[in-house]
């Protein structure tokens, strides 16, 4: 192994500073395990399959692996020590010995280009992303420079009009507040190494996977930058071709176009070559620049051979449309694949930092995104996602399939309002009451569960036996078989949540059932019926109408001296119709769905004279799926809504009781008081204007608590000789801060 120590370089300013101070303090270096932690809206990407190991970032100090063997040739050897502390006059990244880079074994600061040195950060929301870094003391030098190989990707859900990199001390204060010798600052003199951010080479400018060409432009696409010692502010992209296709902002992942990629070397493990991209506003699949002028004919021949066509059939012109026949052939060819062009949401970051004597041994690199005004003024995640999507549809040229002018006018109207009114109007451009589907499903499921009542035990001379519960929806179980019919109606109010407007659900149901008892202590039954409901969104936002049939199996049993339990498993086949009021238009939609539900209930009753009382509890589970659908009727404002899938679990515990009246006909009063807690999954539903890429709409899960009161009466109204008919009626009320409901149920049961 070679090991040399090169001439120490010390920048003039730090040396003079230390001389004036008369101090023997030396600068820190970055620790090998440099990452302390991260916080905020972002992640450092880790992918062991690509060789990127946890934590995705590392520091390399005073290490060289590249040595010159001639004027233009280099070889790579085992790492050896080379001490360089000042990069101000360095003109090649191949000479860098100190760097922040991705955590990839065997890769160093001066490794060959394309070896995967860049730290990959994903920005995932509106808030800054902080990377806390560790230093170690006493390098023996007054300052040490590090070059950063960075890459950031936009997964925020909105275009970035810019972003900033800030250097902060361990308390979050700007490093410019600290003396330079005790700070970490950007080295703004290391210009030849690069200070800036730009899209990866190959799409714009030669380099990268595309080699000597720029697929979309021969010029690079850099973000404008202004600098201070502790802040780099990045702004608009200024490449004219980029502006023509994508505007001036940095695209979100959801906004990048699809590309047609060709596995040009029959090796699926490496990156494929880009042949065309789907320019929605420009008519569809569009060729990019495939090679240099001198190599183009040979490249076109290779493409034609791979597709099994003639070169003339390609009708190739850079920036021209790909013929439909070629598109069909490519889609059927295993060497061609459609995928999104991810590098349009990536920006390579290049900058150097100078590390001084850091007293706390820690500092922060903060990445802060900035957005368009309509996005910046939002408060909730739903508003942010909706504004980000609308801003993209309005201002990304390749997405303009006829609606951009309407979207731009709407944005102008929105930002002219005060923030509260602006965000209320903004919310209407998306589907702000998607949780109404879940609300309808939950009310339907609760109806079925409630319609059969709860298993109850009764003590007689023959011992414990199943008995009529007598709640509003109960049925009586006789010696053999009985049937019942039940009609009911309810109204429920679901409160506004962080990401959804509130709504009222009015529903009615018809239930039919039959049950067979075994040995007086257990039974099995089958119920079926129909439910119908409407969820009306607050502020006249729109509605969801739902209806459907259901079927469920029920089993009941007794235990101990006063216990009873029952279980139910059911399925509902549902259909939905929607209306949504948006910008003076009405969008309508229709779709189908289904729900699986399961319930386990139990009680244990004690007898005191004519009273029976005891604890009761239940677990309910609902799993609703709704198919995606497209709206009509509102022009550019019509949405395509993706599939929805969510689960709700309800836990209940309380106290129930019943009292038999001394009357000529058997009559029973029943009641219960329970505490209920619902928990449900949050969802990210894909929604977007029809014809455009979709974005993610957050939908809050059903997370709420309430108290329920059950009051009921059941009475025999006729029959004899074991053929009684029972009438059951009652009320169920639920009361909570986010949910309340009121239901009436009337049922008729017969034993025969």
TrEMBL record:
Signal peptide: 1-27
Pfam families in the cross-refs: Autotransporter
Gene3D superfamilies cross-referenced by the UniProt entry: Autotransporter beta-domain
Keyword vocabulary terms for this entry: Signal
InterPro entries in alphabetical order: Autotransporte_beta, Autotransporte_beta_dom_sf
Keyword Repressor: no
Domain of life: Bacteria
Matching PROSITE patterns: AUTOTRANSPORTER, PROKAR_LIPOPROTEIN
SMART domains: Autotransporter (SM00869)
The keyword Protein transport is assigned to this record: no
Domain Autotransporter: 476-752
NCBIfam families according to UniProt: choice_anch_F
The name this protein goes by in its record: Autotransporter domain-containing protein
Source organism phylogeny: Bacteria, Pseudomonadati, Pseudomonadota, Alphaproteobacteria, Rhodobacterales
């Amino acid at each position: 192994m070679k090991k040399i120590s090169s001439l120490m370089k010390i920048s003039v300013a730090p040396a003079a500073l230390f001389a004036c101070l008369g101090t023997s303090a030396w600068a820190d270096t970055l620790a090998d395990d440099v990452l302390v932690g991260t916080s905020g809206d972002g992640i450092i990407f880790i992918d062991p399959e690509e060789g990127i190991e946890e934590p995705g970032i590392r520091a390399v100090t005073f290490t060289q692996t590249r040595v010159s063997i001639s004027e233009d040739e280099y070889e790579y050897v085992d790492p050896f020590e080379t001490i360089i502390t000042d990069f101000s006059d360095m003109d090649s990244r191949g000479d860098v010995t100190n760097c922040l880079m991705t955590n990839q074994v065997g890769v160093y600061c001066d490794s060959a280009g394309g070896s995967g040195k860049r730290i990959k950060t994903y920005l995932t929301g509106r808030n800054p992303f902080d990377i806390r870094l560790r230093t170690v003391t006493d390098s023996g030098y007054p300052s040490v420079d590090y070059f950063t190989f960075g890459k950031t990707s936009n997964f925020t859900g909105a275009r970035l009009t810019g972003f900033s990199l800030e250097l902060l001390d361990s308390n979050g204060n700007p490093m410019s507040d600290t003396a330079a010798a005790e700070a970490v600052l950007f080295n703004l003199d290391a210009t030849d190494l690069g200070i800036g951010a730009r899209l990866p080479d190959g799409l714009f400018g030669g380099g990268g996977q595309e080699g000597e060409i720029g697929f979309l432009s021969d010029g690079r696409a850099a973000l404008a930058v202004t600098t201070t010692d502790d802040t780099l502010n990045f702004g608009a992209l200024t490449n004219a071709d980029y502006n023509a296709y994508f505007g001036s902002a940095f695209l979100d992942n959801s906004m990048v176009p699809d590309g047609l990629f060709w596995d040009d070397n029959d090796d699926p493990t490496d990156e494929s070559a880009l042949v065309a991209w789907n320019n929605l506003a420009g008519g569809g699949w569009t060729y990019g620049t495939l090679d240099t002028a001198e190599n183009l004919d040979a490249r076109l021949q290779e493409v034609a051979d791979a597709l099994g066509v003639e070169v003339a059939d390609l009708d190739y012109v850079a920036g021209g449309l790909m013929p439909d026949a070629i598109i069909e052939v490519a889609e059927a060819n295993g060497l061609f694949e459609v995928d999104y062009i991810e590098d349009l949401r990536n920006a390579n970051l290049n900058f150097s930092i100078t590390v001084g004597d850091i007293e706390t041994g820690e500092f922060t690199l903060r990445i802060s995104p900035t957005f368009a005004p309509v996005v910046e003024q939002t408060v909730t995640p739903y508003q942010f996602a909706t504004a980000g999507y609308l801003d993209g549809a309005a201002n990304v040229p390749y997405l303009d399939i006829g609606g951009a002018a309407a979207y731009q006018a709407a944005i102008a109207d929105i930002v002219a309002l005060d923030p509260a009114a602006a965000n209320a109007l903004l919310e209407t451009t998306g589907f702000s009451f998607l949780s109404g589907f879940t609300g309808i499903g939950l009310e339907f499921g609760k109806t079925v569960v409630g319609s059969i009542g709860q298993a109850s035990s009764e003590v007689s001379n023959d011992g414990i036996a199943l008995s009529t519960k007598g709640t509003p929806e109960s049925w009586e179980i006789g010696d053999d078989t009985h049937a019942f019919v039940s009609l009911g109606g309810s109204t429920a109010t679901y409160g506004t949540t962080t990401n959804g407007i509130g709504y009222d659900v009015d529903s009615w149901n018809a239930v039919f059932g039959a049950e067979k008892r075994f040995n007086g202590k257990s039974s099995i039954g089958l119920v079926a019926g129909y439910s119908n409901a409407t969820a009306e969104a607050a502020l006249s936002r729109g509605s969801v109408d739902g209806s459907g049939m259901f079927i469920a199996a029920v089993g009941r049993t007794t235990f101990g001296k006063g216990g009873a339990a029952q279980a139910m498993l059911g399925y509902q086949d549902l259909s939905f119709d929607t209306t949504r009021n948006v910008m003076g238009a009405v969008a309508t939609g229709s779709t189908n769905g289904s729900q699986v539900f399961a319930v386990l209930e139990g009680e244990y009753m004690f007898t005191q004279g004519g009273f029976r009382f005891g604890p009761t509890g239940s677990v309910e589970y609902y799993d609703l799926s709704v198919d995606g659908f497209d709206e009509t009727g509102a022009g550019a404002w019509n949405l395509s809504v993706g599939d929805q899938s969510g689960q709700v679990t309800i836990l209940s515990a309380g106290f129930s009781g019943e009292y038999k009246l001394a009357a000529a006909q058997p009559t029973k009063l029943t009641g219960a008081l329970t505490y209920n807690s619902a928990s449900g999954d949050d969802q990210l539903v894909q929604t977007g204007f029809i014809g455009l890429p979709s974005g993610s709409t957050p939908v809050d899960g059903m997370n709420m608590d309430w108290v329920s009161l059950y009051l009921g009466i059941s009475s025999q109204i006729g029959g004899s000789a074991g053929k009684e008919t029972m009438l059951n009626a009652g009320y169920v009320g639920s009361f909570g801060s986010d949910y309340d409901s009121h239901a009436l149920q009337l049922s008729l049961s017969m034993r025969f």
